[in-house]
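Pipeline run #58 for the internal structure catalog. This entry was flagged by the ingest filter as a single-chain record with no existing model, so it goes straight to prediction. Upstream metadata was stripped on purpose; only the residue string is passed forward. Reviewer on rotation: M.T. Logging verbosity set to normal.
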Amino acid sequence: MGKLRLMSVLRIVLMPVLVWAIYLLKGNLWFRLYPAIMVALAFLCFFVSLFKTPLIEVIARRMGEDIDNRAKRYCRNVTRVWAAFLAVHFLVTLATVFASYEVWVFYNGVLAYIMMGLLLVGEFIVRRRVRRG
């Protein structure tokens, strides 16, 4: 799917959601939508990079890592994992906009960071095992 087509589809899908959200939440909408917008932007960075050099590979190269074909495959897979995680995270974050304030705060202020930290630690452990094996 071309980049322009993807952006058109995203607009068609996200615009009604945004209009509906503005109607329902009025006052504090932008405050409550901020985490969802940030997650959506992060997702787009990871997802779009899968069509060229994966973002994880770019980060690894900037850290001075030697990237062979095996490492390129690993970087692409890690980028896919992050894109999938961020897609689900976006949906949950967006759902919390319509939940109680307590649920929104707990998910976006506590649980989201724990989940991202667990994914980072998990990937670090897997990377060490992959390097050994």
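catalog note: The chain has a mean pLDDT of 88.
catalog note: The radius of gyration is 17 Å.
status: ready for reviewer M.T.
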